[in-house]
Amino acid sequence: MYKSLEQALLDLEKAGMLKRIHAEVDPHLEMAEIARENFRQGGPALLFEHVKGSKFRAACNIFGSDERFNFLFREGFEQTKTAVNFKANPVEFFKHATPAKLLRAMRAGISSLPKRSGSIKDFEECSLSDLPQLVSWPLDGGAFITLPQVATRPSENTSIMQTNVGMYRIQISGNEYIPNEECGLHYQIKRDIARHHQKALEEGRPLKVSIFIGGPPSHTFAAVMPMPENLSELLFAGMLGNHRFRYFEHDGYLVSSDADFCILGELEPGLKPEGPFGDHIGYYSGKHDFPCMRVQKVLCKKNAIFPFTVVGRPPQEDTLFGKFIHEITKPMVPASLPGVYGIHAVDDAGVHPLCLALGSEAFRPYASIEEREPMELLKTANALLGFNQASLTKYLLIAAKEDAAGISTDANAIANETAAGLDVNNVPAFFGHVLERVHFDRDLHFQTATTIDTLDYTGTSLNHGSKVVIAAAGTKIRELRNDPNDLKALALPHGFKNATIVMPGVLMIEGPAHLENGNETFREFKEALAHWEFRENYPWISIIDEGARNAGNGANANNILSDFLWLTFTRSDPAQDIYGLDEVVENKHWKCKAPLLIDARVKPQHQKPLTIPTEITEKAKRILKDAGVL
Description:
Elements: H1 5-14, E1 18-21, H2 30-40, E2 45-48, E3 57-60, H3 66-72, H4 77-88, H5 90-96, H6 99-110, E4 115-116, E5 124-126, E6 144-145, E7 148-152, E8 164-166, E9 170-171, E10 182-185, H7 193-202, E11 207-213, H8 217-224, H9 233-241, E12 246-250, E13 253-256, E14 261-274, E15 277-278, E16 284-285, E17 288-300, E18 305-307, H10 317-329, H11 332-336, E19 340-345, E20 354-359, H12 376-384, E21 395-400, H13 411-415, E22 418-419, E23 422-423, H14 427-437, E24 444-451, E25 464-472, E26 497-503, E27 506-511, H15 518-530, E28 540-545, H16 560-570, H17 574-577, E29 578-586, E30 589-599, H18 614-626
Parallel strand pairs: 1-2, 3-18, 4-12, 20-21, 21-25, 27-28, 28-30
Antiparallel strand pairs: 2-3, 5-17, 6-9, 7-8, 7-11, 9-10, 10-17, 11-14, 12-13, 14-17, 15-16, 19-20, 22-23, 24-25, 26-27, 29-30
Helix pairs in contact: 2-18, 4-5, 4-9, 8-9
């Protein structure tokens, strides 16, 4: 369909989905805040025609709405979903496919294969400093590329279909990087590039890396797609974009013929400090040692456009990436994880910190609902915590689909991720269902001293922390309440105040600033709870800092449910921060009585939340207003 990024942007403009910013904009903070404010207001894609300090134009918010996503991929989206359905369940596909549908599927697959085409003559040379020097947040360690397509192969002589393309942020200035000669490549744990990097290190050679920027929109989306191992994102890009991925090789490097920019280089054996960087959870990720790439060549098209995105407290533009990835890969869940009927990595909670799952509980089909308890659900939970990106989940809440009468097990029920009204995408209803059934003396299962998301600083050190599974099956054992009058009977001790009902059964309460001994802080608070007649009716209490609900600047800031999800799950580590009444460890199993207490206050190891100076926001609003966007 689209042969270049500019062609796609012109198509968006023709459809009234893109506005041009003619005024000069500063890539240091200003351009990023324009992008954020535009997204908050539900604005169009933006094309910046004059970027201070760069000869290149820049574009943002390209993928920032359902409408634009559907428009850009209107020719390839359905055939891509068909291909995923085929891979998920080939028997069912052939059973219901007509000959015409089979022929279309075969043609789509063949026409999506990468195609060798183009040459180095199609590009000019430039340097890293020529690119727009995008600095998104005040404490960022330098300028970053935020929509890179990072391509690697196991070795130079391997098939093009063994190419891995991922999106790992690239720092192009600052810290100890030699200007125009080095850049930082930040890849987190559980990323496919690690296999290629490990192989190169074992063989004692540098890993050749190609970083593509721009090109057809399907190329960017393919880079964030969690493809099965050894299935290349290049094939997906061709299918989704309805246009084959074109490439050629230069000095052993893969070059995308349709990209706006290509940065070619090698990962050096040593590491260099990378960061800080304002990340998608809503906090800075700190400065840490990561692979350093020695740049060999920077290529650009004559009229190249620099696409970028801005991350921060959800929701942001990357929320849309997650939504469409989920829509495409939904059929793969029951195929890859039998017994799973739906998963929802909650965006407002920062994605990896919280996952809701719906599973089967059929280990004892003869048991009555009163006798039913999580058994198969625990097997399923462990499978989820070992599955692709779900393995980074910190809090996993899983419920049994059999706990509602009239369960449907047909394909539509699975596709809709709902069973008799129990929907993983309805966060309040799902929480309510779990809290009505969970036994706090039985159903919490911790994994301590394990690996967690690289961007999560609630644990004990980088990449290290804990996880918890909260499983619920069987009949209701408590009634949840949602009555503000109930709070009048709760005598909060000194330092605790402003109890707020988030949803039935869930409270947020402001507490004193964090001290080292959390148990001592909660001692008087637990005593007060022990005498509260409604403690069973509010089985989840999150303790937050005073004024914490004013922190962060995402589009959903000051929405009580969004604040609860963001504060609770981005500021707590299960093993360190979960408490409860009469908590004990028995046979190495932690248990307590309701309510469960989550210490979601800021701790010394936490990173700073992302904020932007007011004057930058006001200038961004003026520029958008003058351009007729707002």
